[in-house]
Design brief:
- It is a single chain.
- The chain starts with a strand and ends with a helix.
- It is of the alpha+beta class.
- 41% of the residues are buried.
- The longest helix is centred in the middle third of the chain and has 18 residues, at 239-256.
- A six-stranded mixed β-sheet has the order 9-8-5-6-7-13, covered by helices on one side. Strands 10-11-4-3-12 form a five-stranded antiparallel β-sheet, with helices on both faces. A two-stranded antiparallel ribbon has the order 1-2.
- The protein has helices at 14-18, 28-33, 83-93, 97-113, 160-164, 194-205, 239-256, 266-270, 275-282, 304-312, 316-326, 344-353, 361-374, and strands at residues 3-4, 22-23, 64-69, 75-81, 122-129, 136-141, 145-150, 168-175, 183-188, 210-219, 222-233, 289-294, 297-298, 329-332, 339-342.
- Helix 3 (83-93) packs across helix 4.
């Protein structure tokens, strides 16, 4: 039978997981669920090795998501370094260490799981547990644009699993402008380890056989390393290939360091190993071929127009009451922390100029287009 590569979390448990794979057979549903753009797998000349020079990232200076495939086309590996992204979010949300770790892991997993999506496709992952973190949300596009937030950014220093809680759900929403309806998936929180729970979701809800690992190193208000990897079986992956990957993952964990405070693969990233290096380690002996790379960036879509759209959804009497009591309308974006303010006169003027139904995306987009033309 084809084996399922179980979710890999930290170095204290990963060796047991590497040697105890969970059985799973590929079904027609499994094959149908594995979708990649054909362009990712096309090469100009298979007889010549592809240069890795465009993918080099010395000392992980830049955030990067690098994807590669085994020479026989049966394994895809995606590796990310996301230190800068995590630091931007720490500053934007004024997060302490534990919330920064949680959001960093979640956003990294989003980039890894969503690698290969169409540019306009969006992946939203929500972890809603009963812990004091009060949930976390990450939204990623196919272009690598990311944004996210946690419910309690100032949470004190407690274990990550305790902050998330063991009762709750992991929810995944995938959408594209051309789709009639979004895809929704949900599973229960099992461990409170974000990558492990998402690995369980992929196996149960999407029938994807993969190993997923993500982690951060955050001290105070600085993230010194962050990243992760996902190893995914494609149809036709044989047991010999899986055995090679098992050995490679075990060696990778050993080199990462047997330290409960250093989650895989942050030990390697801290030592200067890049996504290309880590992908090479995982696909050692399997003739690694690069597929491409994405440069993840923190990008929020908030704006004054979107704020006013939310205001229009409120009862007008409630809006007037807020303005009367506060003299100004103020709101803070959950995703980037930006604060927006509107005076009573500006609110009144916008109500007079408003057109269309605020509940309809097409009306909102049309109104934005008209305003851009007017400017």
């Amino acid at each position: 039978s084809i084996m399922l590569i179980s979710a890999v979390i930290n170095s204290s448990t990963v060796l047991k997981r590497v040697t105890a794979w969970t059985p799973l057979r590929f079904t027609s549903r499994t094959k149908a669920s594995i979708q990649y753009r054909h362009a990712l797998f096309s090469t100009s000349d298979d007889s010549e090795p592809t240069s890795l020079e465009p993918y080099l990232n010395p000392d992980n200076r830049n955030d990067q998501v690098f994807a590669a495939i085994s020479g026989n086309g049966s394994l895809k590996v995606t590796v990310a370094t996301t230190r800068n992204l995590v630091n931007e979010n720490i500053m934007a949300h004024e997060m302490s260490e534990v919330p920064a770790d949680a959001l960093g892991r979640l956003m990294t997993c989003g980039l890894l799981i969503g690698n290969g999506m169409q540019d306009e496709q969006v992946l939203q992952i929500s972890v809603d547990g009963d812990g004091p973190l009060r949930g976390a949300v990450s939204i990623t596009s196919g272009e690598g644009e990311c944004r996210g937030y946690v419910g309690n950014p100032a949470l004190s220093q407690i274990p990550l699993t305790e902050s998330i809680g063991l009762v709750g759900t992991v929810q995944v929403v995938k959408n594209h402008p051309s789709w009639p309806n979004p895809y929704n998936g949900i599973t229960s929180i099992r461990t409170g380890e974000i990558d492990a729970d998402l690995g369980a979701y992929l196996a149960e809800s999407e029938q994807r056989s993969c190993a997923l690992a993500a982690g951060t190193v955050v001290k105070g208000v600085l993230c010194s390393a962050a990243g992760g990897y996902i190893v995914e079986q494609l149809p036709g992956c044989d047991e010999d290939t899986i055995k090679i990957v098992e050995k490679n993952l075990a060696r990778l964990v050993e080199e990462n360091g047997d330290n409960q405070l250093t989650s895989v693969p942050t030990g390697l990233l801290s030592c200067g190993k890049t996504p290309v290096d880590i992908a090479n380690m995982i696909l050692d002996g399997l003739d690694m071929k690069p597929l491409g790379q994405v440069s993840p960036v923190m990008k929020c879509k908030c704006s004054t127009e979107r704020l006013f759209r939310s205001v229009r959804l409120l009862d007008r009497s409630d809006v007037d009451d807020i303005l009367e009591k506060q003299e100004i309308l103020e709101a803070r974006c959950h995703f980037c922390g930006k604060v927006y303010r509107m005076s009573p006169d500006e609110v009144q003027q916008r109500f007079e100029e408003a057109r269309g139904d605020p509940t309809l995306d097409e009306d909102f987009e049309e109104e934005l287009t008209e305003k851009k033309k007017g400017n």
